[in-house]
Amino acid sequence: MENLNKELFLSDGIEMMSMRDAFGEVLVELGRRNKQIVCLSANLMDSLRVSGFKEEFPESFFEMGIAEQNMVGVAAGLALSGKIPVAATFACFSPGRNWEQIRLSVAFQKANVKIIGGHAGFGNGGDGANQQMFEDIALARVLPNVVVMAPCDGNQMKKAIAAAIEYVGPVYIRMMPTKKEVLTSNMTPFVLGKAQVMKEGDKLTIIACGQMVFESLKAADNLGDQIEVINVHTIKPLDTETIIRSAKKTGKVLTVEEHSVIGGLGGAVCEALAEELPVKVIRMGMRDCFGESGEINELMNKYGLDAGGINRKIKEILSC
After folding, report:
1. In this predicted structure, what is the pLDDT of residue 10?
2. What gap in Å lies between CA 164 and CA 13, rounded to an integer?
3. Which strand (E) or helix (H) includes residue 286?
4. Among 19, 89, 96, 295, which has the minimal tally of Cβ within 10 Å of its Cβ?
């Protein structure tokens, strides 16, 4: 469990890191250790920070151009020949554009492919609704054999990539482009499929993923020990044990995600609790709508997915 205190949110010295920078760095490090790793890009080498891998391992890098469906087919072939392919592009294109290829070439064959969905959620804010992706977790989660991860910060992104490389089978990891606050340390344990209780409380459980973990912690920071915050970095397989234990204690659950409330983290939590421990669950996320053009922080504020919006929802729930 992370030991967080009020100084975390008041200090100007908090470390900032982008998930994509962390991804680029760790991919090079892992490539030095494991020569079976190859990287595929769909004309977004710089945006996804894989240019460093190309420079150090030119024979293990494949620029596929704007052809995401072909990229996944090639990645599957490489995996079936013994390589460990990491296929990186924007989430709106993968799994957004090439879902059928992921389904049949990767998931169905249990091919050892690691799919990176960059600029997920509001990540492509200025490019508008068609480039923003709030459906990727749902698309990936429904596929048999596919592990789905959404790390909370740059440090955790590095650990998620390392865990994905070690795991034999299909993995989807979503990530955001902007520099965000680092919540975890290099010493923080990371276990695939095991959620992390970041803050303990007894009145309300907040279950969050991605950069919504920081926003949730910030929202709960002045509410003492009433709020429990859980970081679900692995959405599939879901850590139902941790979720049920917390829900039994608090009796109320709030899920927070930079994703549609349909089929994502909120859906997964509702499914698990409906079967094991029916309690009140409120889902925060995109409510059956597309986004719009704007800066990421502006959009998070408009759709109530920043700390202020989450804080208001917490107080509303606690007052009931």
Report:
1. 35
2. 31
3. strand 280-286
4. 295
Domain 7-13+189-318 CATH assignment equals 3.30.497.10? no
Q: Which residues in 176-209 are b (16+ Cβ under 10 Å) and which e?
A: bbbebbbbbeeeeebebbebbbbbebebbbbbbb
User: With respect to CATH, is domain 16-181 assigned 3.40.50.620?
Assistant: no
How big is the chain by its Cα radius of gyration, in Å?
19
Specify the pTM.
0.94
Q: What residues does each domain of the chain span?
A: 7-13+189-318, 16-181
pLDDT for res 225: 93
Q: At what angle do helices 307-318 and 212-220 cross, to 10 degrees?
A: 50
| pLDDT per residue as tens digits for the range 61-80 | 999 999 999 999 999 999 99
Q: Is 284 helix (H, G, I), strand (E, B) or coil?
A: strand
- The count of residues in the chain is 320
Provide the percentage of residues in the chain whose pLDDT is more than 90: 90
